[in-house]
Design goal:
Structural class of chain A: alpha/beta
Mean pLDDT of chain A: 94
Strand order of the largest sheet of chain B: 1-10-5-2
Number of strands of chain B: 10
Largest interface: A-B, 93 and 73 residues
Radius of gyration of chain B: 20 Å
Helix content of chain A: 40-55%
Strand order of the largest sheet of chain A: 1-10-7-4-2-3
Shape of chain A: globular
Oligomer: heterodimer
Strand content of chain A: 5-15%
Chain lengths: ~475, ~160
């Protein structure tokens, strides 16, 4: 069934964000929490004099890889297969899910533990498997919390960043039997540890994401702080690794560049606690890698946008984005939110996600922090033009843009309207002016209107040759 | 057409022009080395990640193992981040590395390198089945950004620098 017949809702970021910011205190808290993560990233980056050189290297390695993606994928497949890893290819989300389910069925596996994989979120794997009788447990603590709450993760690295400890306490009280009102993070984490140990020990299969797949050696790299990916794969007889095709890097030496950038960008740590390299299944174990396209080859062919495939999913762009910090991941209605989400997702369904490139002030902070130097703000701007050409800009906004363009093209009109505006600002009561200025005036003080326009001042001073004051 | 053929064909039709692969080793050689000797920097990085570090002997390793920690040798240490490369020899060791409450890593002082560039140049990762850089006890900050040591993996990690 095509997605159009399902009539999936068009995302209205401003509308969703308005609901988020209705709770001003919580918005300030969310904003502060993410900015704090940004500051940790800044300290880590500043400690490496070669930081910019690493970014340039990473960007170049990724651009090269994408320009020869087929060759590197074939090499990875050949080397991984030679190592005893079983490699699968999936054109889209549905095919990925069928492949994963097929592997589980062949092993009569009904209990799956999963470590973090945004790709599997993108593919809707959990509901697919659950509908077929598989018990799926997300083992990353943040992901387990949102799974118990039946919510989507709101950040690709910090899935539960939108929740306060009291929220987690309530969820654990309902699902894990912790005492009502217990909100101490240490105690809650201990409760989750005990609860998830049972799941690890009982699992028939473990699924992980892939941070990097290395073409020259045919192995995959998984980075975690919690050890959940490794607990799963150390115990279970089947390890399935799901990866987007853009996660390939050519050489083991390239890993050094990316690993030095990844965690510093994501959380400000120099490295994750565990950086695990899987090259061969151990005796009696099967290791599967599922290579997934799901729109990536289409993005690869988009001249202004293919560089977004360099993304290593660090989340730094989200942590710095003033819009993300003050609207939260759920306002984007996409698997990956924030600046990178807004350049990856419109390509999947332009009508549905037309609003996302506009959820930005184009401040460019995202571009400044991106470890692989994706030109995020430029791509956001390019998408806006495509959205406008396709006719998906809301009618009121399109009309306002047309009117503004007309006015600005006629200097006489600009001067006349400017004079009217200055008079109005002097004469009308503040309340009326705020209402007239729309969303702008809700949380801002209005400027003091100048006595005259710059044009008038310049004419007056130029005429008698006096120097500008 | 198989998915494999379809995807590869789609890539060949779509792929942009791109630069040559950079010489990462040559670039890394131009990065300045931070001050302080390698062992001192490793100890600082390791402790910053929540690990205990002891400069000692095999006897210290045995003592901790007798007290209940899982002991395993590390092959190489990385000064910039306190990571230790561990290749568990069998399934039991791999499970114990992550399931134990406490882990002790024995690492030769002379096996410490400056950074990940040096580490990957020295190691033969392609020859391993499973190998991991371990940089401290497991941790999480998923609940309101409060750091908790001991998430799902070990709650304590000790590195004993021997030799």
């Amino acid at each position: 069934m095509s997605r159009r017949t399902l009539a999936l809702p068009v995302v209205d970021h401003a509308d969703a964000a308005a609901r988020f910011i209705a709770d001003e205190a919580r918005t300030d808290w969310h904003d502060g929490a993410l900015w704090w993560v940004r500051e940790k990233r800044d300290r880590a980056a500043a400690a490496l004099p070669e930081w910019e050189a690493l970014r340039a290297l990473a960007s170049r390695i990724k651009e090269h890889t994408l320009s020869r993606l087929d060759e590197h994928l074939e090499r990875f497949e050949a080397n991984a297969t030679r190592n005893g890893i079983i490699v699968h290819w999936a054109r889209d989300a549905a095919e990925h899910n069928r492949i994963v389910h097929g592997i589980l069925e062949r092993h009569r596996a009904t209990r799956l533990v999963k470590s973090k994989s945004m790709l599997t979120e993108e593919c809707g794997l959990n509901p697919y498997l659950e509908a077929r009788g598989i018990d799926v447990v997300d083992t990353d603590l943040g992901e387990r919390i949102v799974q118990l709450r039946d919510e989507a993760p709101s950040h690709i690295v910090l899935p539960a960043i939108h929740l306060k400890k009291e929220d987690v306490g309530d969820t654990f009280h309902a699902h894990l039997g912790t005492p009502a009102g217990l909100a101490d993070p240490q105690a809650l984490t201990e409760a989750a540890r005990v609860h998830l140990r049972e799941k690890f020990l009982a699992a028939d299969a473990a699924l992980t994401g892939v941070n990097f797949a290395v073409a020259e050696s045919g192995g995959v790299v998984v980075c975690t702080n919690e050890g959940n990916a490794d607990l799963g794969t150390a115990l279970a007889p089947v390890h399935i690794a799901s990866m987007g095709i853009e996660k390939i890097v050519p050489r083991l030496d390239d890993l050094a560049v990316f690993l030095r950038l990844l965690t510093r960008s994501a959380t400000g740590q120099p490295v994750t606690v565990y950086t695990s390299h899987v090259h061969r299944p151990r005796a009696g174990q099967e290791v599967h890698v599922v290579l997934v396209d799901n729109g990536r080859t289409t993005q690869l062919g988009r001249e202004g946008f293919w560089r977004s495939l360099k993304c290593i999913r660090c989340g730094a762009c989200m942590n710095t984005c003033p819009i993300y910090r003050r609207s939260g991941g759920h306002s984007y209605g996409s698997t990956v939110p924030g600046p990178i989400g807004s350049v990856l997702t419109p390509g999947l369904d332009l009508e549905r996600y037309a609003d996302l490139p506009f959820a930005s002030t184009l401040c460019g902070s995202c571009t400044a922090v991106c470890p692989v130097m994706i030109d995020l703000d430029a791509q956001l701007y390019r998408w806006r033009q495509i959205v406008a050409d396709a006719g998906y800009v809301p009618r009121a906004k399109a009309a306002a843009m047309k009117a503004s363009a007309y006015v600005l093209a006629h200097p006489g009109l600009v001067r006349a309207l400017g004079a009217t505006a200055r008079r109005a600002m002097r004469v009308l009561p503040t309340r009326a002016l705020r209402r007239a200025s729309g969303a702008w005036g809700i949380a801002r003080d209005l400027p003091v209107p100048p006595r005259e326009s710059f044009h008038a001042w310049y004419r007056a001073h130029r005429a008698d040759g006096r120097a500008a004051e | 057409m198989s998915a494999r053929a379809a995807i590869l064909a789609a890539i060949r039709a779509a792929r942009p022009d791109g630069p040559e692969l950079p010489d990462v080793r040559a670039a890394a050689a131009t990065f300045g080395a931070p001050a302080g000797d390698l062992v001192a920097r490793f100890i600082e990085s390791s402790r910053a990640g929540g690990a205990d570090v002891i400069e000692g002997t095999r006897a210290d390793v045995d003592r901790l193992a007798d007290a209940g920690a899982f002991a395993i040798d590390g092959a190489l240490g990385v000064a910039e981040n306190g990571a230790v490369w561990v290749v568990p020899p069998d399934r039991e060791a791999r499970v114990a590395l992550f399931l134990s409450e406490r882990v002790v890593l024995a690492l030769d002082r002379s096996a410490i390198v400056a950074d990940f560039h040096a580490a990957y140049a020295r190691l033969d990762v392609a020859a391993t089945g499973f190998g991991a850089f371990v940089a401290g006890p497991s941790k999480t900050a998923d609940i309101e950004q409060s750091l908790v040591i001991g998430a799902h993996g070990p709650k304590g990690l000790t590195v004993v620098l021997v030799g």
